[in-house]
Amino acid sequence: MESVRVNLGERSYLILINNGILDQAGEIIFSCNLGKNAAVITNTTVGPLYRAQVIKTLEQALFHVDVIEIPDGEQYKTLSWIERIHKKLLSFDLDRNSPIIALGGGVIGDMAGFAAATFMRGVPLVQVPTTLLSQIDSSIGGKTGVNLPEGKNMVGSFYQPRMVLIDPSVLATLDMRELRSGMAEVIKYGIIRDQQLFSFLQRNMDEALHLDESVLSSIIKTCCTIKAAITSLDERENGLRAILNFGHTFGHAVETLTNYTEYKHGEAVSIGMAAAARVSAEWGYCSQEDCTEVVSLLEAAGLPIHPPALSGGDYLDAMQKDKKRVRGNIRMVLMRRIGEVFVEEVSSEKILSTLKKGLLADKK
Questions:
Q1: Cα 269 to Cα 305: distance, rounded to the nearest angstrom
Q2: 364 in a domain, yes or no?
Q3: Which CATH number characterizes residue 73's domain?
Q4: Is 363 within a domain?
Q5: Within a domain: residue 98?
Q6: Distance (Å, rounded) from C-alpha 281 to C-alpha 293?
Q7: Angle of CA points 292, 296, 302, to nearest 5°
Q8: Domain co-membership, 138 together with 264
Q9: Quick check: pTM over 0.90?
Q10: Is 118 helix (H, G, I), strand (E, B) or coil?
Q11: Which of 130, 158, 173 is at the close of a domain?
């Protein structure tokens, strides 16, 4: 079993990675000395696949288990659904030591995490991510929350899990679109922190998308290690952790403007990363060659690189609502080269001028 430690003092925790770890979930969670009543939160896609397996292993460890199953989709990541979850949790026989187990992808992880952070002012959280995106990114680091119609993840909290259990074998049940979506975040790690990972992906993208075990194991371990290291140094995004938002400011605008229904999160981030690479080259921060390599790798992963045809003003309005805006400026993560990025506060005027020139989209 592979393990990666997130070092946060008394709130430190392990990311455990192993094929078949779902069958050990109850035993591992039991070792955390938590309450014996547990709630599993999942959705209507993941639940039929893995709910029974997880409940069985929890019951074998003598947990009493209740389940909350919500619809699958980003459009359900709202405060109204959090209220439904809270009311359901209240109907169970839980106390402040009862674990909530998030079984699903990024949406479930964010929602269950926020529910755990706020129910009874905080109950233990265990993340059991079932998509590539959630396994290498969203289940790690403690960001939880929900969307508002005006912006993505505008309501939430930092709330660390007690542990993260990653079973790479569950990725075999993902459809190709979901797998490609997760690959966007993998590519992000190469761009922001690890040129060797980027080169590895250039050589092995086809194998990764066909779930080659050795390639996939290497990718997951590498990404988890990067995310854990950054989170350990900057838990609440006061500095270094902001680089994890590469492609996200524009990507979140794409999601918001399309009502969270047209693009998966990784697809929107891919569009945002292509835009960030183009802007970085246009503004003279990175070479055109590095920009081309980023866009080409995104295309090789089968990801979108062109934003939807909306006005520059619409994009700017959505970006200005981003929670990471500072002093009226928009914080953008830009490239110096593959493997190195930086954060810059950019004026709305400069961004609008760039948008109007069409520089965020390649000429088709």
A1: 9
A2: no
A3: 3.40.50.1970
A4: no
A5: yes
A6: 12
A7: 155
A8: no
A9: yes
A10: helix
A11: 173
**289 shares its domain with 302:** yes
The residues facing 291 across adjacent strands are: none
Residue 192, classed as helix, strand or coil, is: helix
Residue 245 neighbours by CB distance under 10 Å: 23
Here the tokens at position 114 are 């926020």
Assess whether pLDDT exceeds 50 at residue 363.
Answer: no
- pLDDT digit string (tens) for 296-336? 999 999 999 999 988 888 998 899 887 667 777 899 999 99
- The CATH number that applies at residue 256 is 1.20.1090.10
Which residues, listed in sequence order, are joined to residue 3 by a DSSP beta bridge? 16
For residue 88, the one-letter residue type is K
Instruction: Give how far the C-alpha of residue 153 lies from the chain's centroid of Cα atoms, to the nearest Å.
Output: 11
For residue 169, the SS3 value is helix
If asked whether residues 155 and 213 sit together in one domain, one would say: no
What's the total number of domains in the chain?
A: 2
Q: Position 120: which residue type?
A: M
Q: What is the pLDDT of residues 33-47, one digit of tens each?
A: 999 999 999 999 999
Taking each helix axis from N to C terminus, what angle separates 312-320 and 348-356, rounded to the nearest 10 degrees?
150
Instruction: Give percent helix, percent strand, percent coil of the chain, each to the nearest 5.
Output: 50, 20, 30
User: To the nearest whole percent, how much of the chain has pLDDT over 90?
Assistant: 87
182 and 310 both lie in a single domain: yes
Residue type, 58: L
Q: Which domain holds residue 103?
A: 2-173
Instruction: Report yes or no: 70 and 76 within 8 Å, Cβ to Cβ.
Output: yes
Cβ atoms within 10 A of the Cβ of 246, count? 28
Q: What is the CA radius of gyration of the chain?
A: 20
Instruction: Return the DSSP state at 306.
Output: S
Distance between CA atoms of residues 100 and 117, nearest Å:
10
Same domain, 108 and 243: no
Residues paired with 151 in a beta bridge: 148
**Domain stops at, among 128, 152, 173:** 173
pLDDT for the residue 335:
98
How far, in whole angstroms, is CA 293 from its chain's centroid?
23
Residues 150 and 189 in one domain: no
Tokens of 343: 């954060």
